[in-house]
Amino acid sequence: MSSGNRHAEIAHILRRATFGPHPGNVEKWVEPGPEALIDSLLSGSPQRILPAAEPAAEPGDERWDDVVKGFFTNMHSANAGLHEKMTWFWHGHLTSSDQKGGPLAIYRQHKLVRSLALGNFRELLRRITIDAAMLRWLDGNESRGDAPNENYSRELMELFTLGPGNYSEADVRAGAKLLAGWEAHWPSQIVRFRPASAYKGKVRFLGRKIRAGKESYSRVVDAVCDHPKCAPFIASKIHEFLIGVAPDPVRTDKLAEVFRDSGLEILPLLREIMTHPDFLNLRLNRPRYAIEWTTAAAAVLGRSSQANIWAMTPLGQTPFRPPNAAGWPPASSYLSSQQMLSRLDVLGWNWTEENSALGQRLINSDDPAEEVLQIASLYEVSDTTRAGLVSAARRAQPWDIPNTMLRLALTSPEFVIA
Amino acid sequence: MKKPVADHHYHYPDPERRQLLRFIGMGAIGGALGNIGGVAEADQNRLHRRANSTTKPGADSDRILVVIELNGGNDGLNTLVPYGHGNYYDARKALGIQPDAVIPFDGSFGLNAALAGLHQRGLSVMQGIGTTTSPNLSHFQMQDRWYRGDIDGTYTGETGFLGRCCDAVKGDSVVTGLSLEYTQSPIIVAKQARTATLGSLEGATALFAKENALLPDGIAAIHKARTEQLSSLFGTAREAMRDMVILSNFLRGVAAPSKGYPDTTLGEKLAVVSRIIRTNGGVRVFHVPYGDFDTHTSQGNKHTPLLKQLNDATSVFLDDMQASGYGDKVLIATISEFGRRVQENDSGTDHGNGSVAMMAGPVIAGLHGEAPSLRNLDADGNLKPTTSYGDYYATLAAWLGVSDIVLGSPLPLLASATQANS
C-alpha cells in the first residue's frame, strides 16, 4: 500500500466518522494505520454536554444561544469523534425543533440523545417517545384518547423505525390511541402520564393486542422494534450515512442480523459497518453535509466554533432547527448552486490574515498549491483541480495567496465531497 | 501593483444583523465585472441581449408561473368553508370557521375572510383537488408525487413537474426556473433548462467582492466541464460551481426592490420574485415554498394567520405586477401535498386528502369544480377528491403553452383572453 493511499484512507475515515479532519490529524494516524484509527474511534469516549447548566423554558432566554453554541463547539472540537458524529445522526433521525419545544425541552432531549448515541436503540426510542421536546414537536402533548392526534404514531413508523409501506392506516390510528396521555408540564417540562387523557381499552397494533395505559407507549415501542423491518431500516440508514450508499440486500440482512442479535445495541452495528472493506474503499461517493463542510472548513481555517453559527441558516443545517419531521434533506441536496453561493459567502467572512501562522505558511511555501491541499487534508486530487490551484498561485501576489488558495481549495470538488 | 483593501472581512455580523442584511439591494457589492470565464461571460452577454431586446411584457413567450407551495398540507375546509353545511360544524366543533368570518360564494360555500384582499383582486378557487388514485397520508410520499408530477404513482422520470415546464419553455434564458429556498427541491429539477435554488439574495454576489478578484479565473480552471473525475459526483460539484458563477452574474443585474411588501417570510420571498421578474431576464417559473400548514395542534391559532399572511403578501405582489406592466403575464397558483381530515382531533387536524387550489392573476375568478361530499368519506375519514391534481397541473402547464408533461387535461380556469396559447 502506497503511503499516498494511506493518507487518503485516514483522511476519509476522519471525514466520515468525525467532523474533521483537523490539520495534522492525518499525519498522526498514518503510522498506526486505518485499522488502529477505526478501533480507536469505536472505543473513544464521549465529550460532555455543553453548557453544563440548563436554560430556562421560555423561548428567547439568552442561555439558549449557549445551547446551540455548546453543540456547535462540541462538533468543532478536535476531540469530536464517533460519539459526536452519531449524536448528530440521531439528532437528524429522531429529530425535534426548539421552535415547538422551547430551549429547556430541547436541551434535555439533546442530553438524552448524547447519553444513548452509541447505546441501545430500543432504550433511546422508548425514552424519546415520551421526551418533552418530542411530545411537543410531534403533538403527543395535545393528544387525548378520545381525540387522538396521529402525528407521532405515523412518523414513529414511517420515519423512525419501519419506512413507508410497512404499516397500515389502522396501525397509525391504533398507535395514536396507545400513545395518548403523556404531557409535558409548562414551564418545568416534566413529563407525566395523565390517566384522564389516555385511551381506555385494548387495540390491535402491528398485529399485537395492547391494552392502553401508562405502559402502552412501551409496548408500542417494543412492537416497532421487534418488527422485522426495523433492524434493516435503521442499519441501512446508518450504513448510508457512513458509507455513502445504501447496503445491497445481502449486506442489509447481515447488518440487521448483527443489530438484532445484539439486542439493538448501536455500537456493534457500527463496528460491523466500519470494519467492512467498503468503509475504506467507497470514498468520495457522497457530498459533505453542510454541517460537515462547515466544521471541516473551520478546522482548516483555524476558526473558533462560534464564528459560523449564523452561516447554518443559508447552508440549511441549523442545529435544533430541522426543516421537518424527516430531519435534514439527504446528502445529495448539498451540491446545489445555492450551497456554493452560501459557502463562498461564508468563506468571505473568514479572512485569513497575511501575518497569521496559516497566512505565512501559505505565502512562504515554494508550492502553495501543494501546501493548501495538505492543510485541507486532500490526498486524492484530480489533475484539473491541482492545475487550477497551481495556476492561481502563479498569478497571485503574495498578499493574495492565502485567501485565494484557501477559497479555491475549500470549494473544490475534492473538499465538498465526503 | 497596489494592495487592495478587502471590503468586509474584519467583522462578523451577529445573526440579527444578518437577518437585516437579507434582501438588501446589491448595488453596493457589485464592482467591475471581472473575467468570469468563458461560459459565464457568454451567458452574461445573452442575458444583456435579452434584457435589451424588444421582447417586452405582451408576448406569449413571456408568461410567468409563480407556484406558492402551502407546505405541510393546507386545510381546504377552513380555506373554502362549507358554512352552509351542518356536517362541517359537527366535525369542526372547535375549529369551524363561523359564518361571520366567511366571504360567501353562494349559500353553501365561502372563502375564509383572511383571504379578502385576494378575493377582491379576483381569486380562482378550485375545490375537490387531490389524488383520485391511491391516496397516501404521508407528507413525504405525497410531496414526492406532487414535486415530480407523479399523478397516479407510476411516473418514473427524474425531473420535477416545474422542471419539465422549464425544459419545455427554456428558450435562450440563462436561468429558466428558480426555487426560493435554501435546499434544493425535486420540483424544479430539469433536464435541459438551467434551474436553481435561491434562499435569499444575501451573499449572492460574494464572488464580486474586491478581495475575491482572483477567484473567477481559478474557479473557471478548477470547475471545467468534461474533465477527469475521481468519482461520479465530481461532475455534479463542478456543475454546481459553474452554475453558481452564472447565477451570481445574473443576480448582479437584478432590479431594485419594490416597496410595500410585508416583513414576513412570504413577503420577503415574493419581493425577490418581483425583482427577478422585473429584471426581465427570462426566468419563467418560480417555486415559492411557504409555511408550516401541518396544523395537527393549535390549528385555531395558526391556520387563519397563515392564510392572512398569504393574502397580504400575495396582494402586494399582484399590485406590484400590475403596476409594473406584468399584470396579465404572471399567474400565481397554490399547491399543497394534501388536505386535512374532516373530523378534527382535540385542537387540530390530521392528514387528509382532498383540498382546494387557488389561482390569481389572469384567471376566471370565483368558485370552480365539484364539491366533495362531507358525508360520503373514504375509509380513513377523508374527503374523496372530485378532480385529479393532474388536471390542475395541466392547467398550469397550459398557461405556459406546454402540454403532455403530466397526466391530466387543463381545466377552464384561465381568463378567456389568455387561455392556453394553442
Quickly list its features.
heterodimer, A: 418 residues, mainly alpha, two-stranded antiparallel sheet, 4 strands, globular, B: 422 residues, alpha/beta, nine-stranded mixed β-sheet, three-stranded antiparallel β-sheet, 31% helix, disordered N terminus
Walk me through this protein's architecture.
The complex is a heterodimer of chains A (418) and B (422). Helix content of chain A is 56%, strand content 3%. By secondary structure, chain A is mainly α. Among the domains of chain A are: 120-227, no CATH class; 230-281; 290-416, no CATH class. By secondary structure, chain B is of the alpha/beta class. Chain B is 31% helix and 12% strand. In chain B, strand 3 and strand 4 form a beta hairpin. The interface between A and B is large, with 77 and 75 residues.
Task: Tell me the number of helical segments of chain A per DSSP (H or I, 4 or more residues long).
Answer: 23
Q: State the low-pLDDT regions of chain A, or none.
A: none
Q: Major sheet of chain B: size, sense and barrel closure?
A: 9 strands, mixed
Number of strands of chain B: 12
C-alpha-based Rg of chain A, rounded: 23 Å
Cα gyration radius of chain B (Å):
23 Å
Shape of chain B: globular
Q: How many beta strands in the DSSP annotation of chain A? A: 4
